[in-house]
Amino acid sequence: MKKLIIALLFALPVAVMAAGGAHLEKANIDLSDKASLQRGAKLFVNYCLSCHSAAYQRYNRMGRDIGLSDAQVQENLMLAGEKVGETMTIAMPQSDAKRWFGNPPPDLSVMARARGTDYIYTYLKTFYIDENRPFGVNNAVFPDVGMPHVLWELEGQKKAITKTETDADGNETTVITGYEVVKPGSMSEAEYDQAARDMTNFMVYMSEPVVLKRQQIGIWVLLFLGIFFIVAYALKKEYWKDVH
Ligand code: HEC
Predict the structure, then answer these.
(1) 41: closest CA among 4, 5, 73, 2?
(2) pLDDT tens column, 119-139
């Protein structure tokens, strides 16, 4: 029985991963890297906040967490007229957005938690040219996506290299094996990877702003429990020494 439970515990993550479909690239983010979070925030407000809101995130809270003063946030990350205590909302009405894109752009406050860190990173890196789509692009991890490739000026445009695979039942599927750059962007591949990583980092921070504090507190709690265990054990020995 014990062996069975252990075997199941090990088999479970493998089964879950296998069901995930497209291959996800490792984002390797570092939530304690403030410079990366600041770059991510800047890219996010410049390239994403026009369509997507982040309605659970306040500008001033974000600034404090990633190491910017209110004045810096106001100057670098906000439009004139917005107040630093406001949340990251957008002016685009949902009904218009649905008409324009087929699907309205979802709120991104907790998207990184909903989809996973590596998914966000891979999503940002796998837009490819597809003339059959309304905006001329498709996405490897989100087939038939309604979002245009808003970062194409940075990344450039690329074609997918595909091959057809036939499974045991004779069903044919097309899989993407790589990409070929058709038009380079303003960033090199390494620079774009870093930009995608910074944005992912920022979105992961945003989906749980207390994460760093929670981990710090967790270490102290474990330390306390460790020390308390020694004290409790010594007490137990003292109380029971006459009984045995
Ligand atoms: C021009 C408008 C527009 C901009 C700008 C934009 N998006 Fe989107 N985004 C969309 C739309 C529309 C969808 C919904 C796609 C769908 O459901 O087919 C979407 C969906 C998404 C999703 C959800 C994917 C999923 O699995 O559900 C993520 C993540 C995302 N966008 C991230 C970003 C990021 C990061 C940026 C900034 C770099 C950005 N978007 C900029 C329109 C936009």
Answers:
(1) 73
(2) 999 999 999 999 999 999 999
Q: What is the pLDDT of residues 189-211, one digit of tens each?
A: 999 999 999 999 999 999 999 98
Q: How much is the pLDDT for 19? A: 40
Token pair for 150: 């808003």
Answer whether 152 contacts ligand 1 (Cβ < 6 A). no
The closest residue, in CA terms, to atom 13 on ligand 1 is 105
Which residue in 200, 192, 175 sits closest to 41, CA to CA? 200
Two tokens, residue 28: 């390797």
**What is the average pLDDT value for the chain, to the nearest integer?**
91
User: Which positions ≥6 away from 41 have C-beta within 8 Å?
Assistant: 62, 66, 68, 77, 202
* 118 CA → ligand 1 middle, Å: 16
Q: How far is CA 234 from the centre of its chain?
A: 46
- Ligand 1 pocket residue status of 105, Cβ below 6 Å: yes
Q: How far apart are CA 60 and CA 42, in angstroms?
A: 14
pLDDT tens for residues 60-96? 999 999 999 999 999 999 988 889 999 999 888 888 8
Residue matched to tokens 């990251």: 88
Ligand 1 neighbour 112 (Cβ under 6 A): no
Say which residues have a Cβ less than 8 Å from residue 196's Cβ, sequence separation at least 6. Answer: 121, 124, 125
- Name the residue at shortest CA distance from atom 42 of ligand 1: 147
